[in-house]
Amino acid sequence: MKKYFALILLGATASAQANVYQCEQDNKVIFSQFPCDSDTGAKPVAQSEKLTQAPINSNADQQLLQLQKRNRFLEYQFAEAEQDYKIAVERIKTEMYNLTKTAPKPNETQVLRIKLQNLHKEWAERQEHLKAELVVTRNQMSSLEQQYVQK
């Protein structure tokens, strides 16, 4: 997948470095890598005005960028949730350890064990949900990239 996307970007940047001509046709300004018809008069665009990136014109390009952003955001959320989970587990374990230093009441340790079990359960559900969202987003990106290759 990444290979195809890299090839597309490479082709887009290679074409962006070619000569660019500004033409006027039907009272519209058109940019092209080929000179215009002789009767319309081509004006080469100055080097500083040349495009450095391929313009994002198609709906598919915009969709792919949105999916990539969503994928990065979901990965960030996953990492942040995992870190929060680990911190919460450590807090509960610290509380349990501190209770062992004193003479804990039986229900105090039981409450902490239940908290820990609930935390594990909540994390497993959250992890499953985030992974499912990541899979959906990655599948959408993959199908969109395959459409690029087929064009």
Protein traits:
151 residues, mainly alpha, 3-stranded antiparallel β-sheet, 3 helices, rod-shaped
What is the element layout, followed by pairings?
Layout (H helix, E strand, L loop, with lengths): L1 H15 L4 E5 L2 E5 L10 E2 L14 H43 L4 H45 L1
Antiparallel strand pairs: 1-2, 1-3
Helix pairs in contact: 2-3
Care to describe what's here?
This protein has 151 residues and is mainly alpha-helical. The protein folds into 2 domains: 1-55, no CATH class; 57-151. It is 68% helix and 8% strand. It contains 3 helices and 3 strands; from the N terminus they run H-E-E-E-H-H. The chain has helices at 2-16, 59-101, 106-150; strands at 21-25, 28-32, 43-44. Helix 2 (59-101) runs antiparallel to helix 3. The longest helix is centred in the C-terminal third of the chain and has 45 residues, at 106-150.
Helix content: 55-70%
User: Which geometry do the CA atoms define?
Assistant: rod-shaped
CA-based gyration radius: 28 Å
Domains (count)? 2
Terminal Cα span: 15 Å
Reading side by side through the largest sheet, how are the strands ordered? Answer: 2-1-3
Strand content: 5-15%
* Low-confidence region ranges: 12-16, 47-57
Count the E strands.
Answer: 3
